[in-house]
Amino acid sequence: MKLIGKLKEYLYTDTDIVLSIILPKKFYLQAQKIPQDKLLDIDIGVREGQRTLRQNRALWALISKITAAENGGLKPREYVNDTYIQLIEEANISVEYWEGLEEMIDVLQGDDNKKPYRVVKVVERRKSAKGVDTVLLACYKGTSRFNKKEMNDLIDITLDRGREHGIDLLVYEEDLRR
Questions:
Q1: pLDDT higher than 90, residue 166
Q2: Alpha carbon separation from 86 to 26, 93, 152 (Å, rounded)
């Protein structure tokens, strides 16, 4: 289970350190499931600034508008993903490459946070030394895994592309810059 909170205080006893952590109310049910009598694995790290859900919704709405503008009003999912890939590449956001069986795509790609990549695209089909058909995959992470610089770069490039198509950016820009 992953929780996000802030350290309120810590106290030293003769044998232990007692941490007091403040969690948002949305973690109420998860917090109730934490056993008090068991030893827990705890991995604590500083949470880097991430995009908000509002930013994410605005970004994908704008990417959909851009896709429609570039494709005569059509915006099927694969076209939207192609626009996303173009924007990531223009923003110079890193792409990871994997080689393996084509079935890997289903394991790697998804638009939920349970999959490691938002979009996976076949770059090249290959045959291994043992005669096995493989694919080289370009793997594009989702915005929830971007650092602050990557997200800002993607927002800038996306807004620029929107301007090129004459899209009214007032509502998008306000939500994206929060």
A1: yes
A2: 36, 10, 16
For residue 47, report the phi and psi dihedrals to the nearest 5 degrees: -80, 120
Of 100, 134, 140, 135, the residue nearest 117 (C-alpha): 140
* CA quadruple 167, 171, 172, 177: dihedral, nearest 10: 140
- As given in the structure block, the two tokens for residue 82 are 């192609």
| Global model pTM greater than 0.85 | no
What Rg, from alpha-carbon coordinates, does the chain have?
A: 21
Task: Write the CB contacts of 98 (distance below 8 Å, at least 6 apart in sequence).
Answer: 104, 108, 136, 137, 139
Mean pLDDT, all residues of the chain = 89
Q: Which residue has the tokens 């704008």?
A: 62
> Whole-angstrom Cα distance, residue 152 to residue 177?
9
Instruction: Please say whether the beta carbons of 176 and 58 come within 8 A.
Output: yes
**pLDDT at 124 > cutoff 80:** yes
Q: Residue 18: which residues within 8 A CB-CB, separation 6 or more? A: 10, 11, 12
Nearest residue to 81 via CA among 118, 114, 54, 116:
118
Contacts for 19-28 with beta carbons within 8 Å, 24 or more apart? 27/3
